[in-house]
Amino acid sequence: MLNAANAKPFREPGSYLRSPGPGGHNIRRWITPASGSKERPRLADQFKALDADRTWLYYSDMYDPIAIALVHAAHRVEARLEEALAGVGLSIAKFEALSVLVSQDRPISLSELAEKLTCVRSNVTQLADRLEADGLVKRADDPADRRAVRAEVTALGRKRHAAGAKVVQAVLQEVAKELSAVDPLVLKRALDAVQ
User: Fold this and answer.
1) Hey, which CATH number is domain 92-161, 1.10.357.10, 1.10.10.10, 3.40.720.10, 3.40.50.1360?
2) What DSSP designation does 195 have?
3) How far is CA 105 from the centre of its chain?
4) Can you give the pLDDT at residue 146?
């Protein structure tokens, strides 16, 4: 049985250590290289490493080949989306926030944006900071509530969102093509059954 006392890194420094975390679930901790570099690998490279060494899942409650394949497929699609969006200067988080702001077509409060993104307000505040620094969003005081701030997409934000939507659509079309051998209705029902 793997435990915190006998957990060993699966890679050299500059990679991740897998060890049990709270509740017995496996967690990954970054091992700082001897050089002292804090730089972590790209998300796509992290998922490739996970695919190359799946043994950590054998120590979890999730050892089921279909569940493992589903999780890894989701990670690979996410990594492909991150990589594609990076090409247009976005991340998935930035693209999702811009998608909400573009669809609203009006300034909305950061609380409302957090609700629509289903995340906590502090995360949205940091995300709005990054979007504003990139010139994709501008903030304005809320005339109805002096304590609140509203976010509004800029012209550059709309342009970048449109570019992001194209690359996201391309990745999703590639994934659909890869899954075309499977009956789409059967696949959809099976995925919808996962709660």
Assistant:
1) 1.10.10.10
2) -
3) 24
4) 79
